[in-house]
Amino acid sequence: MEPGSAFFMVMMAMIGGAIRVSTPFLFVALGEMITERAGRINLGLEGTLVLGAMSAYATSYQTGSPWLGVLVAGLAGMTMGMLHAAICRLPKVNDIAVGIALMLFGTGIAFFFGKPYIQPSAPRLPSIPLGGWSDNPQVAEALKINPLFLIGIALAFFLAWALKNTRAGLILRVTGDSEVAARALGHSVALVRLAATGFGGFLAGIGGAFLSLYYPGSWNEGLSSGQGLMAVALVIFARWHPIRCMLAALLFGAAGALGPALQSIGITQGYYFFNAAPYILTLFLMIGSAGSKKALRDAPGELSLTR
Predict the structure, then answer these.
(1) Helix and strand numbers, DSSP H then E, in the chain
(2) What confidence score (pLDDT) does residue 130 get?
(3) What beta strand segments (E) does the chain contain?
(4) Domain for residue 270, yes or no?
């Protein structure tokens, strides 16, 4: 294979892979960003992601409607998020510890109720063939876009506008920066955080639905591979901004697509190392963010990592 052709195939595979792999990261990161902008950290989104994947797949199998599965996954995630917020209201409760506990709880519930759905095949979400104009199969395959990806991109821009220009966005930012200021303005801190954490869980559940109903498009107990936890690092790297969350999700998606892209041109040596690229990237981002004064300056004031 000529070098130019090989490079083109790798680039097309990485573009298509970045779009597919980034979608769960995008939804979970946007959800966690909203949660953290309210001054709450939810490390339980890994469990929410897995529970959303199982709920979506089971609903799609039972009803024949994958979009109903997406809705049920979002509602399951919202329930987990609101449970997190309710528990964290109790005195002397640490939100990080609660998040870890709910991560294990959500994963356990998903594994328990998802056992009957490991083998059956459920209807999957459709794709939009935006590459139909090209005769090149690599281009056509790379530009098969799931509607959830487009919804996630639109949501990132909407949230960026809403945080800056709406009353609800102002209330969220004030609550995350200073509980005292929020109470002085007459806002209920607990209610704002309940809504933000519930919304964050809803988005994480939709991210799980994408995993089971589109890519990789099945339900099994190893489906998530830690994407919920990596999204927390992604939010810190993006410094709590929706557009940067979107770009960081695409970066993580491209890293996740590197191994399969190289395999598509016959490079198999070091395959497992390249598949570990998202985890290596997460490690470096966490190390870089830990010592970044700019990241800490942009962090909501009520987050425990700023204290």
Answers:
(1) 14, 2
(2) 77
(3) 128-129, 144-145
(4) yes
